[in-house]
Amino acid sequence: MWTRLLTPRWVLLHLLVAALFVATFFLGFWQLGKAEDGGGAVNWSYALQWPLYGFMGLWFYVRMVREELHRDPDEDEPGNAVVLYQRPRIDTSGDPELAAYNAYLAELNERALGQRGPGGR
């Protein structure tokens, strides 16, 4: 279960989140230094906001990891989805020209879906 979090993509995300989390504290410390040097209320607010941004990002990341751990790993596999396809009915009771056109459209549809080769075979 935890091995899903050790793929190269996840390891890169772990490292990126850790680096950004630490960076927010450095930025908060930098803003605190500017505020102590007489920077004003804006610098004091940024000195508090940067660590909050770090904790907020960490909270979202932990939620993302939890969702990944509780996700069914086979749900992304091809063939799991139910595909509802109904062959179109061709109305032959009315106009023969319309019936021929509908038959042509049905043949094109089947060819596009890869069910029949060219020429109807």
What does this structure look like?
With 121 residues, this protein is mostly helical. It has a domain at 2-73. 65% of the residues lie in helices and 0% in strands. It has three helices and no strands. Helix 1 runs antiparallel to helix 2. The longest helix is centred in the first third of the chain and has 32 residues, at 8-39. The protein is elongated. The mean pLDDT is 82. The chain crosses the membrane at residues 12-32, 44-62. GO terms for molecular function: DNA binding. It comes from Geodermatophilus dictyosporus.
Strand segment count: 0
The profile of the biggest β sheet is:
none
Radius of gyration over all CA atoms, rounded:
30 Å
Q: What is the element string, with H for helices and E for strands? A: HHH
